[in-house]
Amino acid sequence: MQLINRLRRRSEALTNTPAKQEKSLFTEKRLGVWRILIAKESTFYVPGFEWTLLATNFPLCRRAFADIYAISASMFWCLMLTYLWTAIEPSMSLDLSNRLLFCIEHRILGKTTGDDAVAGLYWAIIARVVCSVISGVVHWASKHIIIIYGAQIKYHFEERILEANLKRDLPTSEDHDALARTNPGDVFDCLQRTAQLAKELVSFLLQLRVVHGVLGSSLHHVGPIFVALSIVPLIARTTLKSDLWTKAYFVQAVDEYFLRKSALYKLSNATFKQEVMGGNIAAYVLKEYRRARKALRNTPDEQAEELYRHSSTAFPGIFSEICGDLPMLYFAILAIFRPAELSLIHLAILEQTSISLRYTFSTLMWMSESWPGELSGMKTLYRVLDLKNTMKDGEIPYPPQSQFHEGGMELDIRNVSFTYPGSKAERSALADVSLSIKRGQLVVIVGANGSGKSTIIKLLNRSYDPTSGEILVDGRPIEDYQVMDLRQAIANLTQDHRLFPLSITENIGLGHPEMMADRGKITEAAKLAGAHALIENFSAGYDAILEPVSTGYMSWAGSVNEDIHEEFKKMEKTAQVSGGERQRLVASRTFMRLFSDDIKLVMVDEPSSALDPQGEFELFERLRQARQGRTMIFVTHRFGHLTKYADIIVCMKDGAVVETGTHEDLLAKMGEYAHLYNVQAQAFVTDAKAWFSLAVCAVKLSTTF
Ligand SMILES: Nc1ncnc2c1ncn2[C@@H]1O[C@H](COP(=O)(O)OP(=O)(O)OP(=O)(O)O)[C@@H](O)[C@H]1O
């Protein structure tokens, strides 16, 4: 019962969103397990098309057209010509077909005789065939242009997105807009859809012109009603149709039993396998799942769009079916009452005209409905491209030309406080931190989890700027320096660093791209990080790509074909390396970076969490040996073998620096550092005692037997 009440409360919380308070803006619906919030439509609304979108997005469309025109003017005009042809072609084709049918009728019924009649028929045939041939060529050319030009446009925008993403600073990258999914093909897709929309509109108007011509001919007595019966029901159907996807809406699952059922189902995923098995909770999960499913009863979870479209009566379906038959039924009724006025050719012409007109009209409606979706993809892409960095870039190069630069970076952190953008924590990540680091000093930062150690590193490499206070680098505010220059002078190694989906050589070489071609240095860096033996073990050695990008996919039928499946698995395989091996490979990149004379500050943030004790000891030793002429900052929980080399140990707690000094100073203070140190030392003492007791036991036992 308690559980059900809790679920109810949660469900109420889900439905009780701020949107409810702005009721006038939205219409709310509950369908199946879903709650749908639909933005109310503007007063000037024609079903199937958002006219206001056209006006408000005109400048964006113009910009997009200018962009793709600049990529290739010739391709652009070729594509537009193909659209022009395909806009004219249906009406021309219809006109020629109708002419041909009239010629055939006249010839069959003997209304025209002689050479002129035969020549007219020949010309009608030739014109029809020529039109078809041109259409075939234009369609092929249009597809060809779309493939080639489309690829050029896609690569162009992909490059722009890449460049924008690479230049973006960290706070801006965490911005909601920057996280939006962008597809480089969206601009071309949207412009194609816009051109197609215009094409369908022109095509429809030209076909009406042909219809006018047909009605003006011998069919004037039956034609108008026939054509009206073809088109009017289509307009009525479009007007009456209720489709969700053309509207601005938001769908959320709110049924408490559905949510619980989904959460329990998720527990069968591989992600939770160990917990479910280890905790032996499978029976509980299944029991609770069944209970939720039973409570859900027949509440449908079909897609909200489908539920919205599904009508409560069969009337719209019947109406739609009858609409399709109306022109033919009308002709049949005429055949009953006024057979003398009709012929099969008349029927063929009217049927052909009405089918073409209906097809174009339906396509026009469909295009106009889907156009806003295409437009929103393009808008998102441009919004991402236009995002401006929130962090200021400085103007002074680093190191400044005037400055003598032996001995590393000098850092002065003054009353710095920092809160992460969008943080929900009460406490700041850093609160009034002050710290002075002289050139070439080795600093060890220690402290409990969440005390702010990594945040200091992130401020020093300008991933973020302090919320208040200032950081001086060599006596100047850090923001005055050009960010790129500053980062060029810093080597950073953290536990978050990843392997790139590139070869091992590149993974290491990117530490110092100017030396990428120097295989000797790359091997040396790998040796320093203890990764050489591991790399040699791969069949492709330094050329191995451990985590390649996905390159293939299988068809549905392919996934059930065992041979294809096996081949696919072989092709797409990612090499598995252990956490420690990964850390060694990543550390190789840092050693490569340390070959650069530009490096004036080395910051190492807990990069050895997965390394064995020997590996960790060697890593710190070798990093320390690269200290000459550099300031070094280590953030670590296991500080045993580093503290004796440290010029300053900084001890942090709850975002503040609580102690600074040498190992001896801080132990003597008997404060936070001494506490952390003793907890670690105690474990060793206890371990040592245990080992000693075991050894004594073993000796006793051996003497007993
Ligand atoms: N990206 C982030 N967004 C919001 N809060 C964050 C973010 N990163 C860290 N924090 C918060 O800032 C505080 C300081 O985090 P920080 O990573 O600097 O601690 P730390 O001392 O390095 O911890 P650990 O020893 O666990 O690595 C913590 O309370 C943490 O939850």
Keywords:
705 residues, Rossmann fold, 3 domains, binds adenosine-5'-triphosphate, ABC transporter transmembrane region fold, single chain, disordered C terminus, alpha/beta, six-stranded mixed β-sheet, disordered N terminus, four-stranded antiparallel β-sheet
Q: What does this protein structure show overall?
A:
Strand 12 (648-653) and strand 13 form a beta hairpin. The chain folds into 3 domains: 51-255 and 299-386, Up-down Bundle (ABC transporter transmembrane region fold); 408-489 and 600-673, Rossmann fold, CATH 3.40.50; 499-594, P-loop containing nucleotide triphosphate hydrolases (Rossmann fold). 25% of the residues are buried. It has 25 helices and 13 strands. It has a 6-stranded mixed β-sheet with strand order 9-10-11-6-12-13, with helices on both faces. Mean pLDDT is 83; it is low at 1-5, 7-22 and 688-705. The longest helix is centred in the N-terminal third of the chain and has 54 residues, at 114-167. It has helices at residues 2-15, 51-56, 58-71, 73-109, 114-167, 170-173, 186-216, 223-240, 256-266, 273-278, 282-296, 304-309, 315-337, 344-386, 453-460, 483-488, 504-509, 519-528, 532-536, 556-559, 562-571, 579-593, 613-625, 663-669, 672-704; strands at residues 26-31, 34-39, 249-253, 411-418, 430-437, 442-447, 468-473, 476-477, 490-494, 601-605, 631-635, 648-653, 656-661. Helix 4 (73-109) runs parallel beside helix 7 (186-216) and helix 18 (519-528) crosses helix 22 (579-593). The protein has 705 residues and is α/β, with parallel strands linked by helices. The site of adenosine-5'-triphosphate has 12 residues, from helix 15. This is P-loop containing nucleoside triphosphate hydrolase protein.
